[in-house]
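lol so apparently i was supposed to do this last week
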Amino acid sequence: MKNSPIIALDFASTNDAYNFLLLFEQSLFVKVGMELYLQEGPSIVYKLKEMGHDVFLDLKLHDIPNTVGKAMKGLARLGADLVNVHAAGGEVMMIAAREGLEAGTTAGNKRPSIIAVTQLTSTSEKQMQEEQLIKTSIDESVVHYAKLSKTAGLDGVVCSVLEAKAIAEACGKDFLRVTPGIRLAEGDSHDQIRVATPANARLLGSSHIVVGRAITKAENPVQAYKNILKMWEENA
Ligand SMILES: O=c1ccn([C@@H]2O[C@H](COP(=O)(O)O)[C@@H](O)[C@H]2O)c(=O)[nH]1
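anyway here it is w/ LLZGTKA7 bound
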């Protein structure tokens, strides 16, 4: 799996996503989320893989263990490099997800890496405490979910940059810390709450960053990507 910034292809159609990708000359690490996948289905993943891109299929599965396990068995055949679930689904659900992926991976192929969303980067500590009734700090909740994900045999988590260091300390440096909520210092945060710059992401221990609007909505997406890549690589 590449280590370059993961570009969130949050587009409404394959055409919009392809037109965006045509701007770039190199193979990228891209993320397909609910918006694009629910319009286009598995074909978008096949096509992006054919084009030579690494693919994070960000469907954040969260259901009973049997359903998630069976869904992951199917997803394994799509060829994505990275898939995910919500850690709030629990340890048994995460084990079922990993086992489903293993069962669906054909002989000779590597199973996709699987990570769990801890607390969404759009969630504040206040919201978590008042709406989810989790009476602890957001850092503690995220690290707790990371440890649970590790116990379930997952490869890492989605978290904010702000918790990446604590997760590396608790779960080890090889445990993935994939961090959305990336913004440039002068950029709009939009709906994100726990945000950080690409440079801080590297300094504070993210293993991968996910960047959507700061690239896709930029006047010059290729230049925006290059700037972010430089900030990410310079601080390694
Ligand atoms: O906690 C999470 C989990 C997933 N995401 C996804 O990442 C991108 C971020 O897009 P931006 O435009 O850079 O805000 C988006 O696809 C989310 O679904 C997240 O933001 N936070």
